[in-house]
């Protein structure tokens, strides 16, 4: 087999994926709701074509051939081959019947989850969740390579080479550090004023502000667009067409503004992957964790930076057409970084967010490496929220039913969000060795930051593993200290604590 | 073969077509321009899949089988089978090499046409056009069934069962009738005042007005949407998702408003085809001419109606927020129907439009049934414009280079537009036997009109031929008298001619 033939097959798979991505984007932004049944007929059919090719004869032929003739592959071909092989090895041993049962179960569980949410009653989801867990446990032996624990197998699907051994240590440190910061803020901090955050800012005013900001940060609007949706996301169709979506709240500008800045981080990553990888599986993010590190770099690092906001505040005030003229910059900045424990993960602030993830990580580990029963989960959930965040869900909707992930069988996904936080802070630390980041964010030209991220992360796409990227970009493996240092600096400043 | 298997194959073809329709809509409404090369890779690939299935083994097997066992087909199956068979018979005899040559030539001709337009120089398009004509002439013997002339073969591809014999008679009468009306207006008419038509009306104001109007006319916005584009169109993805597009000119509200009302006519047709035909080739318009009859019913019949505008004018004034408060209804209405000969077809008014089509029809007939050379065409074009419309193009861009059709090999398409005019007027005449159309348009409830069109036209989709639909809906075959009567009534009123 010629490399060309292998790459052509990958290209056709990618073309189907691009079509599916447009259909998905359309269904979440513009499609009339009433058309959803008809649309799923289209996507199911195309997804079938896509999946058939991914596990088809051309791909297995390529695996056999290039395993024996690795030297016939170019740099791009080799990167693509590695990813194709990994995915093939992951799935080829799984019996078809089990995979079908699993698909059916997750789709049923999604409906059960929705129903349970409407009734705020975990017992309506209980059985379906148990079935998802049972089937995932049945799949793990087929997926397993040399991972030490069952849960490591799941982790690896979202963050290659990540282990519970690493995460246990890292999360222990982060949990302790965050609880410590929270304790200090509580004892010695001064709560900032936040009343003006709910002043009305129209969608058009918010949009005007943030579209200018994300372009300054390096998102290329000529190769993208920004649309409204219910559950915001970014999607890279190809590197010339990378779309952002958001939702707006006219009485909480921070939702739309930080939402767009977050999605623009994902978008910049997709826009800046080296073109040579286009049409191969290397032309995507290295992992969920690395992808989140890019969105969170924008949201948490840039979006928490005092110099950045000092520079942007006059334009923000201008866009708001007088609404914030009586608010000083210092008041404005501090309000953005107020912290408060919440019950709901997606409403959490940057200090408490990772605690929500640690709770989920600990529970998932108990499910797959321990012997907890499904019936015990809501209580465990609530106890951990009490312990780590000091809040108590009034019902299951505010508790264990809040996330979609388990209904779809996505166990092991949650840690990606926390990894994104830690990677972002670690990258920021490394970046400061090359750049005076505060000075750049105080200036008219942010391009040095985007260039640094492109050089060290974006351009490689999935051709390097997350741990390799982080090691090469920062000179050390994952280290949670930088996140803790960063959070401490930001929040001690906002809460006026001098140590 | 079971009917189910045949219908399943048609469904898969239709699903691919739906995906292609979304991709096309997206590329004309929202896609970043810079992504167009990448997008055409996706659409070429999917179009290849689509075409392969359409001429694939399942379809030829179905044709053989159901030709021998027609009684095994249901009503829907039989309607679909008829259309599939016609298309198969049209194309199956064409040698692949010829088809490939033709595709290549038309794609080359499109670039040549664009280049010629930029230089306003027909000689740059001459050779490519000659090649398109040569290859079309080579294809005609393969396409030909029992049509009397070569040009009839082309006509039939857009308007089944239409002949030059019919069109020669019809167009002779229409041409004479329109020239006669124009002569009378010139001699005895009073030109209406039109200066205020260019007053500024913002996109938002225009949109507010017309979106309400098209919903009143029966376009279901819950199963559709309206987006901005450069070359307006309507697209029926499926009957729950039928989208309109338009362009706006803030200093010529009539462009956007009549544009949207026109596209909504196409949209209503697509929304109201009987659901039972969904996923088959019967779930589309009966022909280009019938489709145009629906858009033109909205644009020319409803959109020229004095009672309709009298009812709508206060709301129009309200949407324009004072801009037209000094304009009486009579002044407003008359301005909308001012007529003036133009050089450009797509800028023509409702009285002169059909003359533009007749010119093209006569030239196309000369090309395929006569022995005109390509070099003679620009002069013939200009002479006909002088003769029929009294205007003379200053250059080829204002003349023979204005339309895209010939560059794509779409010879025989133009008459559809004129048929749409005549069908619309004939349907209006028939409708008046059942309804007092003026009274309906003066009322708050237009639904009787939509219901009449759905009963007589929309619901059948392509399951009946255009001539059959017109005969059954109006009790007689195509008759151009109704268009002439209608135009005479409208324009004599506007130009204050009492006969």
UniProtKB/TrEMBL annotation, chains A, B:
<keyword id="KW-0378">Hydrolase</keyword>
<keyword id="KW-0645">Protease</keyword>
<feature type="binding site">
    <location>
        <position position="262"/>
    </location>
    <ligand>
        <name>Zn(2+)</name>
    </ligand>
</feature>
<feature type="binding site">
    <location>
        <position position="266"/>
    </location>
    <ligand>
        <name>Zn(2+)</name>
    </ligand>
</feature>
<dbReference type="GO" id="GO:0006508">
    <property type="term" value="P:proteolysis"/>
</dbReference>
<dbReference type="Pfam" id="PF02074">
    <property type="entry name" value="Peptidase_M32"/>
</dbReference>
<keyword id="KW-0121">Carboxypeptidase</keyword>
<dbReference type="GO" id="GO:0046872">
    <property type="term" value="F:metal ion binding"/>
</dbReference>
<comment type="similarity">
    <text>Belongs to the peptidase M32 family.</text>
</comment>
<feature type="binding site">
    <location>
        <position position="292"/>
    </location>
    <ligand>
        <name>Zn(2+)</name>
    </ligand>
</feature>
<dbReference type="GO" id="GO:0004181">
    <property type="term" value="F:metallocarboxypeptidase activity"/>
</dbReference>
<dbReference type="InterPro" id="IPR001333">
    <property type="entry name" value="Peptidase_M32_Taq"/>
</dbReference>
<keyword id="KW-0862">Zinc</keyword>
<comment type="function">
    <text>Broad specificity carboxypetidase that releases amino acids sequentially from the C-terminus, including neutral, aromatic, polar and basic residues.</text>
</comment>
<keyword id="KW-0482">Metalloprotease</keyword>
<protein>
    <recommendedName>
        <fullName>Metal-dependent carboxypeptidase</fullName>
        <ecNumber>3.4.17.19</ecNumber>
    </recommendedName>
</protein>
<feature type="active site" description="Proton donor/acceptor">
    <location>
        <position position="263"/>
    </location>
</feature>
<keyword id="KW-0479">Metal-binding</keyword>
């Amino acid at each position: 087999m010629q490399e060309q033939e292998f790459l052509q097959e990958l290209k056709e798979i990618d073309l189907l994926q691009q079509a599916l991505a447009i259909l998905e984007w359309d269904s979440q932004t513009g499609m009339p709701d009433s058309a959803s049944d008809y649309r799923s007929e289209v996507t199911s059919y195309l997804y079938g074509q896509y999946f058939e090719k991914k596990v088809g004869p051309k791909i297995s032929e390529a695996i056999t051939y290039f395993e024996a003739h690795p030297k016939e592959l170019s740099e791009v071909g080799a990167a693509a081959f590695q990813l194709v092989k990994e995915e093939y090895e992951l799935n080829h041993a799984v019996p078809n019947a089990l995979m079908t049962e699993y698909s059916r179960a997750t789709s049923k569980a999604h409906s059960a989850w929705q129903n349970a949410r409407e009734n705020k009653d975990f017992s309506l989801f209980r059985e379906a969740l148990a079935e998802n867990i049972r089937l995932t446990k049945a799949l793990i032996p087929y997926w397993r390579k040399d991972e030490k624990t069952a849960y490591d197998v799941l982790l690896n699907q979202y963050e290659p080479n990540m282990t519970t051994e690493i995460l246990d240590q890292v999360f222990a440190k982060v949990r302790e550090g965050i609880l410590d910061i929270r304790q200090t803020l509580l004892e010695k901090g001064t709560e900032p004023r936040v009343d003006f955050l709910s002043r009305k800012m129209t969608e058009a005013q918010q949009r005007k502000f943030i579209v200018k900001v994300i372009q300054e940060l390096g998102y290329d609007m000529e190769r993208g667009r920004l649309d409204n949706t219910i559950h915001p996301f970014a999607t890279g169709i190809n590197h010339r067409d990378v779309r952002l979506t958001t939702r707006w709240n006219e009485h909480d500008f921070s939702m739309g503004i930080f939402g767009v800045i977050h999605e623009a981080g994902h978008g910049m990553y997709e826009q800046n992957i080296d073109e040579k990888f286009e049409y191969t599986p290397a032309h995507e993010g290295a992992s969920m964790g690395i992808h989140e590190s890019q969105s969170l770099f924008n949201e948490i690092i840039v979006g928490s930076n005092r110099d950045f906001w000092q520079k942007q505040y006059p334009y923000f005030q201008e866009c708001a057409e007088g609404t914030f003229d009586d608010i000083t910059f210092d008041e404005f900045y501090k309000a953005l970084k107020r912290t408060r424990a919440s019950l709901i993960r997606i409403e959490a602030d940057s200090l408490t967010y990772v605690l929500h993830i640690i709770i989920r990580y600990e529970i998932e580990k108990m499910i797959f490496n321990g012997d907890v029963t499904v019936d015990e989960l809501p209580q465990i959930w609530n106890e951990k929220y009490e312990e780590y965040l000091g809040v108590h869900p009034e019902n299951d909707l505010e508790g264990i039913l809040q996330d979609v992930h388990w209904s779809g069988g996505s166990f092991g996904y949650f840690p990606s969000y926390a990894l994104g936080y830690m990677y972002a802070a670690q990258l920021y630390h490394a970046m400061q060795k090359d750049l005076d980041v505060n000075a750049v964010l105080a200036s008219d030209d942010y391009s040095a930051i985007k260039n640094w991220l492109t050089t060290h992360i974006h351009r490689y796409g999935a051709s390097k593993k997350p741990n390799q990227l982080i090691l090469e970009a920062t000179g050390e493996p994952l280290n949670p200290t930088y996140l803790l240092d960063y959070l401490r600096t930001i929040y001690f400043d906002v809460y006026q604590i001098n140590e």
